[in-house]
Automatic annotation (TrEMBL):
It comes from Phoenix dactylifera (Date palm). PANTHER family: NUCLEOLAR PROTEIN 5 NUCLEOLAR PROTEIN NOP5 NOP58, NUCLEOLAR PROTEIN 56. One of its GO terms (molecular function) is snoRNA binding. Coiled coil: none annotated. This is Nucleolar protein 56-like. Residues 4-69 form the Nucleolar protein 58/56 N-terminal domain. It comes from the Eukaryota. Pfam families: NOP5NT. One of its GO terms (cellular component) is box C/D methylation guide snoRNP complex.
């Protein structure tokens, strides 16, 4: 069964295919050992799709929804466009690895999901090497997105404290 990974960052949603697991082994310890070496880890995951957020406010709303286990229309559309739909009456031949177990509930996504230590280690590797997977994304772009998101969070907290 194919394994895809959903990675959320301040810059957008990203979908990866974990296709080379036989190269390094299919256990958590093997993944943990390969994560630090981009050459090795790059043989394990492949970028499938990237959906950038339209603004820092959009990023905040999307990331907040994920942390609350909510499926936004933007995320649902992104997944529906980029994951193969199973044929009528058939089970999917893939699962989606997610960091947030609530998002992974089948009632929410209608997609077979998993969130476990193995998936979390794969996502750790993606986070570590993220800027190298997205060709047009410079490390400074990611830092700007994170800074923009944190600025909005601080502003929102300031408004809440004033009330």
């Amino acid at each position: 069964m194919a394994l895809y990974l959903l990675f959320e960052s301040a810059s957008g949603y990203t979908l990866f295919h974990a296709y080379g697991l036989d190269e390094i082994g299919q256990n958590t310890e093997a993944i943990r050992n390969s994560v630090l070496d981009l050459t090795r880890f790059g043989k394990v995951v492949k970028l499938v799709a990237f959906h950038p957020f339209s603004s820092a406010l959009d990023a905040l709303n999307q990331c907040s929804a994920i942390s609350e286990g909510l499926m936004t229309d933007a995320l649902r559309n992104f997944l529906e466009i980029n994951l193969l739909k199973p044929k009528e009456g058939k089970k999917a031949k893939f699962s989606l690895g997610v960091a947030e177990p609530k998002v992974g509930s089948q009632e929410v996504t209608k997609i077979p999901c998993q969130s476990n230590e193995f998936v979390l280690e794969l996502l750790h590797g993606v986070r570590l090497h993220f800027d190298r997977f997205i060709k047009d994304l410079k490390p400074s772009d990611l830092e700007k997105a994170q800074l923009g998101l944190s600025t909005i969070i601080v502003q929102d907290l300031g408004h809440l404290l004033q009330q």
